[in-house]
Specification:
- The complex is a heterotrimer.
- Chain A is an alpha+beta fold.
- Chain A is built from nine helices and 20 strands.
- In chain A, a hairpin with a 2-residue loop joins β1 and β2.
- Chain B is 78% helix and 0% strand.
- The chains are: A alpha+beta, B mainly alpha, C mainly alpha.
- Chains B and C meet through α2, α3, α4, α5 and α6 of B and α2, α4, α5, α6 and α8 of C.
Chain lengths: 371, 281, 300
């Protein structure tokens, strides 16, 4: 049984389609992230789950019950806002007590719960402060405590950390994960920051133009992007346009190997997309998955190519190279001690080995019917 | 060498006092100008105050103030009551109207707002003459208390409406949404979240209504009868009929003093932020 | 069978869904209209209907509107002939007083916005005139009394207050002081929208103070200045108490005062209404201009 289910949920604002027939199943206790650039419909989706806006069509179900007609106040959800949204006229304790008070809980029960929540977010000494007297991180922790105080069924996060500075974001995202793990509540987290999504999610939904482009684990998203958008949006990537020139069937249950020709570059890649001989493909290679060697090493290997280093940028933990490989510019990231040997490699020839290549069917020039 | 070092140090120092004196003079003139006008604003009040406590033949006395709580008591009570009633009616119609205009998709908002604000731009005498005719021949409520209140309400509720609209626009939707997701009903959210946060805007509206209605005399002059003479109108009629008496001055002083204290209190508590773009400041 | 039922039910679904959304919007609109209704009713009954009625009465002959109304332009003709001096006097007093506000208000607003730290205090003091022209004229009268405490001081300073007690300058001054805060409010808003950095930039480019004013400050604050002037003018058009308490008969010949006499003393409602319509038209025109220049009090 899935705790939260979206069925063909669509939201139109006038003629614009903000969310386009999204379907998703989110299991009890699962931590799901909606990841995408601004305007991709992720916040709209979250707000429909919260009940703050109504879907134009489709159904939203909690525990197999359609909740479309249930107002947010009755949905028993907790929503963390981008701007913490603490009531400025109420003290920390009164903010946390708010949800309990409007539900008419007994005074003592409320007070005990508020204390418990304050201790959980380690702000027990701040009960009587006003929100304006707290730091940004403390405010967001109070907001989390307020959201959890009423013991909601589903936790919703609308970019709760985007207004904070980077160090605070890094610590708070783990606090959020820890709170979710401790309370074992289903959580939907919206963000445009992939490092946040990667750090805390059980599953990531990458959204683009109102649709879910791909869902899966961090590894799926990162190593096996299924669309061009995902490959480009998540992490850095080199894109090579090419054609399948060889197919090698794998053992049962194993993906086959494909041979791709892109200009004068030849690549091998695992086949996850069901491609056939002659298909046009986009091959993606991450900068850190390109090995750099001296030209004379492995010279006989057909899977390596020779390129000329055009630019070197030392970024501390990595060195970024721009390599011209037979007219194709490739970005290469080298880490480890090896990077230090490359610092004076500009204008020199190097040998590259492109590894962990992922493939996406190239839809350019294909009949529209496929899309 | 030592000489050149000295000249380098001395050169910029020499013109400094002159420039300073010039700047100080300018500052004195500028602040003097401000204070001159601030004094002008307060002078009529102070003159009235002095006159009300002046004794014939020198010395000071508060004897004129016995009239304030004596023969003027009914007028003051009427002023206070009509001010309070007007404020209440204004609140009752302005808060929903502000919500309708800001939070709901009503067509023709600008036209509606202009229409509601029409009375704000109508000269008091025009409002007076139109109401006195309409009350006498159209509504048949001449010289009535209800007519008085209706005139005050229509003349001042835009002053209540505008600060509330400003405050409501400045209030992010996110607080209402947070209240909703925490389980609050529409009414709970209004009472516990929005109204407290709109407090300064609403208070600004109350202040403006108070200042205008408490001191209004011109519309009142047109529509009031013998039983609906407010304190401000009494100041006017006494001045026209009995000349300038210390007792009249005492009443005028009392009215201004009360008004000023209320304004002072408001500025202390809320500042002048929510009065921007309105009748006051 | 299946083929005939399916096409009937399928198109109905997608069509029904947007309809509910439209219904939702319509419901929201209805709630909004409902919330606006009390305010709109008050405005309708006590502002719009009386004003239209005023127009009707102004177009009615004599006191015939008690029986069968007889429509005529006579009242406006009377205003345009016998009372044309009243209209001119009103316009003259209003424009002179507003001009005084403009000349004295601009430096006041500039210094207040740029140099003064006690702005809250200044704002508090500026509320005195807003308690109404009546107290103001009343207080001015005491100031100008030759045997009053202020009068004797002014006499000692060589100002013969008796010359000013009932005069044009006294009337104008009381009018200008009453509307001064409106002028300062509009100018202040316009000036505080001009970034002081622009003045500094002009200074570093070698502009002299008067050049900074004519080339930077004035062009950028023109709208607010004009709006302030027109707002003062609009308020001053309805002047009543100041001429009555501080002016001569000449100054008392303004629309509000004459209108009161005609309507409530002589019961010539038609003529009073016609004067009211003229004054209303002038005031609305000026307000409309003022709002155009300040782009609406609410910035819409």
């Amino acid at each position: 049984m899935s705790r939260v289910r979206l069925q063909e949920v669509t939201k139109r604002f006038g003629a614009a389609v903000a969310v386009d027939r999204i379907s998703a199943d989110i299991a009890e206790g699962e931590f799901v992230t909606l990841l995408g650039p601004s305007g991709c419909g992720k916040t709209t989706t979250l707000r429909m789950v919260a009940g703050l806006i109504d879907p134009s069509s489709g159904e939203i179900l909690f525990d197999d019950q359609v909740v479309n007609a249930i107002p947010p106040a009755k949905r028993n959800i907790g929503l963390a806002f981008q701007s913490h949204a603490l009531f400025p006229h109420l003290s920390v304790a009164r903010n946390i007590a708010f949800g309990l008070e409007v539900k008419g809980r007994a005074k003592q029960e409320t007070a005990a719960r508020v204390r418990e929540m304050l201790e959980m977010v380690e702000l027990a000494d701040y009960a009587d402060r006003m929100p304006a007297q707290l730091s940004g991180g403390q405010q967001q922790r109070v907001a989390l405590a307020r959201m959890l105080a009423t013991d909601p069924r589903v936790l919703l996060f609308d970019e709760p950390l985007s207004a904070l500075d980077r160090n605070l974001r890094d610590t708070l995202k783990y606090s959020i994960l820890a709170l979710q793990r401790r309370t074992r509540k289903t959580a939907i987290y919206v963000t445009h920051d992939q490092s946040e999504a990667f750090a805390i999610s059980d599953r990531i939904f990458v959204m683009h133009e109102g649709r879910i482009e791909q869902s899966g684990s961090q590894l799926d998203i990162y190593l096996r992007p299924q669309t061009e958008f995902v490959a480009n949006f998540v992490g850095d990537n080199n894109a090579l346009r090419g054609e399948v020139i060889g197919v090698e069937r794998g053992a049962p249950g194993e993906p086959g190997q494909l041979l791709i020709q892109s200009g004068s570059i030849r690549l091998t890649a695992a086949d996850y997309a069901g491609l056939r001989l002659g298909d046009s493909v986009l091959a993606f290679v991450r900068p850190e998955n390109i090995a750099v060697m001296p030209v004379d090493v492995d010279a006989a290997d057909p899977d390596t190519i020779v390129g000329r280093v055009e630019q070197i940028v030392f970024e501390g933990p990595t060195v970024q190279l721009l390599v011209d490989a037979h007219g194709i510019p490739l970005r290469v990231a080298v880490s480890g001690l090896e990077r230090l040997r490359l610092l004076d490699a500009e204008q020199r020839q190097v040998r590259l080995r492109l590894q962990e290549v992922s493939l996406v069917r190239d839809r350019v020039g294909q009949p529209a019917a496929i899309a | 060498m030592a000489v050149s070092v000295e000249t380098i140090v001395a050169r910029p120092a020499a013109p400094e006092p002159r420039r300073f004196r010039h700047g100080a003079l300018l500052a004195v003139v500028q602040h003097g100008y401000i204070w001159f006008w601030l004094a002008i604003f307060a002078m009529p009040f102070l003159a009235t105050l002095f006159y009300s406590v002046q004794q014939t033949g020198g010395g000071l006395t508060l004897s004129a103030y016995q009239y304030v709580l004596g023969s003027f008591r009914d007028n003051l009570v009427l002023s206070a009551v009509s001010t309070v009633v007007t404020i209440l009616v204004n609140l009752l119609i302005a808060i929903p109207a502000a919500y309708g205009l800001v939070r709901y998709p009503v067509p023709g908002k600008n036209l509606i707002l202009s229409t509601l604000n029409l009375s704000l731009y109508t000269p008091a005498a025009v409002m007076g003459i139109s109401l006195v005719i309409a009350y006498a021949f159209l509504f048949r409520i001449p010289q009535s208390f209800i007519g008085l209140i209706a005139a005050y309400v229509v003349g001042t509720f835009p002053l209540m409406l505008v600060p509330i609209i400003v405050a409501l626009r400045d209030l992010p939707m996110v607080y209402e949404e947070a209240a909703k997701t925490l389980g609050a009903s529409r009414w709970q959210s209004l009472r516990r979240v929005e109204l407290p946060l709109l407090g300064p805007g609403i208070s600004a509206g109350i202040l403006l209504t108070f200042v205008i209605v408490f001191n209004e005399f011109l519309v009142t002059l047109f529509i009031a009868g013998p039983n609906t003479t407010t304190a401000a109108l009494r100041v006017y009629t006494l001045t026209r009929t009995a000349g300038f008496q210390p007792s009249t001055a005492a009443l005028a002083t009392t009215m201004q003093l009360v008004s000023f204290l209320v304004v002072l209190l408001f500025f202390q508590v809320f500042g002048s932020r929510y009065l921007k773009g309105t009748y006051l400041i | 069978m299946a083929q005939t039922t399916l096409p009937q039910s399928l198109p109905a679904e997608p069509a029904a869904l947007p309809l509910t959304e439209a219904r939702q919007t319509r419901r929201q609109t209805l709630i909004g209209v409902g919330l606006l209704t009390p305010a709109a009713l008050v405005a309708l009954c006590f502002s719009i209907v009386p004003l239209f009625y005023l127009v009707q009465v102004s177009l009615t002959r004599g006191s015939s509107f008690f029986f069968t109304p007889e429509y005529t332009f006579d009242n406006f003709q009377t205003v345009g002939t016998r009372y044309v001096s009243t209209v001119w006097q009103t316009l003259k007093l209003a424009s002179l007083a507003s001009l005084l506000d403009l000349v004295f208000g601009y430096p006041f607003a500039y210094i207040l916005i740029r140099k003064v730290r006690y702005r809250e205090f200044a704002r508090t003091m500026m509320t005195f005139p807003l308690f109404g022209p009546l107290y103001l004229a009343f207080g001015m009268f005491y100031i100008l009394l030759p045997n009053g405490p202020f009068g004797s001081i002014l006499q000692a300073m060589g100002i013969n207050v008796a010359n000013y007690l009932f005069s044009l300058p006294a009337t104008l001054f009381a009018m200008a002081v009453f509307t001064f805060p409106f002028m300062v409010m509009n100018m202040g808003a316009a000036l505080s929208n001009v970034d002081p950095v622009l003045e500094e930039a002009a200074k570093t480019l070698g502009a002299k103070p008067w050049q900074i004013f004519t080339r930077v400050l004035f062009p950028l604050s023109r709208g607010g200045i004009l709006a302030g002037f027109l707002m003062c003018f609009g308020w001053n058009l309805g002047v009543f108490a100041q001429p009555l308490l501080l002016g001569r008969l000449q100054e008392q010949n303004v629309l509000s005062v004459v209108m009161y006499d005609k309507g409530l003393i002589q019961f010539d409602y038609g003529l009073a209404a016609a004067m009211g319509v003229v004054l209303m038209a002038l005031a609305f025109f000026v307000t409309w201009l003022s709002l155009r220049f300040s782009r609406g009090a609410l910035g819409t």
